[in-house]
Amino acid sequence: MSKGIPSATVSRLVTYLRVLSDLDKAGLTRTSSDHLAAEAQVTAFQVRKDLAYFGSFGTRGSGYSVPGLLLELRRILGLIRPWRVAIVGMGRLGQALADFPQLDEYDFELVAAFDVDPVKIGTTLGGVDVHHSDDLPTVAADKSVDIAFLTVPVDAAQAAADDIVRSGIRGILNFVPTVVSTPDDVRVETVDFLAALKRLSYYLHGQVPAKPDELLIGGSR
Amino acid sequence: MSKGIPSATVSRLVTYLRVLSDLDKAGLTRTSSDHLAAEAQVTAFQVRKDLAYFGSFGTRGSGYSVPGLLLELRRILGLIRPWRVAIVGMGRLGQALADFPQLDEYDFELVAAFDVDPVKIGTTLGGVDVHHSDDLPTVAADKSVDIAFLTVPVDAAQAAADDIVRSGIRGILNFVPTVVSTPDDVRVETVDFLAALKRLSYYLHGQVPAKPDELLIGGSR
User: Fold this and answer.
1) Tens of pLDDT, residues A104-123
2) Is residue B173 part of a domain?
3) How far, in Å, CA of B195 to CA of B202, rounded?
4) In terms of domains, do B117 and B188 share one?
5) Which of A123, A135, B58, B187 supports an S-S bond with B64, CB 3.0-4.6 Å?
6) Which residue of chain B is at minimal alpha-carbon distance from A190?
7) Range of the domain at A102
8) ipTM of the predicted assembly exceeds 0.90
9) Distance in angstroms (rounded) separating the CA atoms of residues A187 and B108
């Protein structure tokens, strides 16, 4: 199903889902590609093109049913079953994620946590039992873990990713600011706050009047 | 400087910077748009088009100087001065960010933290003093804060964003899974791990053989 769909389209579908969810919560039942486009900061043509990969939605002139398109997007994105999540690395970030209130709301179910710290192993943090990382394969199988949140220190990331892969888990949400290698059948999505921080730098920098030599960076080469 | 540059280009520049930084650390001095494209998962044409917004880099046939292009990208992205950061909300996530070792490396300097918890106020967490959130305007001015990390609970996010704006801070890195409104001259970048999680769901879902009716979602409408 993911063959040939640009990753940027997938990202935008997630944004459309968020917009539709907000409209739905506000009690609105109809929307348009113009409205979705404005909220997602893209063109209406882009919205229609993105949706067209998956079929024909809505009616020309009368737009989209909010609950209808919401359901279709949830199905396209696979958000129609509870994905079972384990957190690998129960430092502050892992614990913050375990406490995150909206995981359930979005059909992600936290079922296990892992660490190497003997003080944490055997305890319950954020409502889940913390196991030794060595027990990942058995616990992952027992609990049918689909997705691992990777929240270990940088220098432990690749080894932990290897353990996750060996445990049969096919999705990794990587919070560690490093690239981890996995086989082709294991999908890694990265949450890179440093990248967001650098985008912010670009926009703040742009607010400062640029000096003439900055405007000509490389221009005279 | 940011006028007319697509936000997707800005995101890709950040990716190219990361790739160049890795090449530089590995001691390589030359690269090509083909290599940058492969690492960033885009086309070489896209790389050249993105860079062309900012001038003429590299030499046809001999590619780019790694340290040269690295420096140019740092200048374009405004990563040529230490941005002064404050963390607003010192819960687990705020504390995890305060402890994050790579902030300094990337020219972001953590200068203050804020919370409303009397137990935390007056203490030092992650190497910075925690102030009462009411003192944001005075401390932000004293410490010349450029960027605020917003890490408060969801229901406190908009009020905290308003305080940040009133304190003269022009950049917000929003870790709260909600949209905050700010004036046009305050830039908000969002770190949305739930969006990354939903993208992951899409790709995992795609690995499961789809049922015929799922392949036809909306197609017969």
Assistant:
1) 666 799 999 999 999 999 99
2) yes
3) 11
4) yes
5) B58
6) B196
7) 83-194
8) no
9) 30
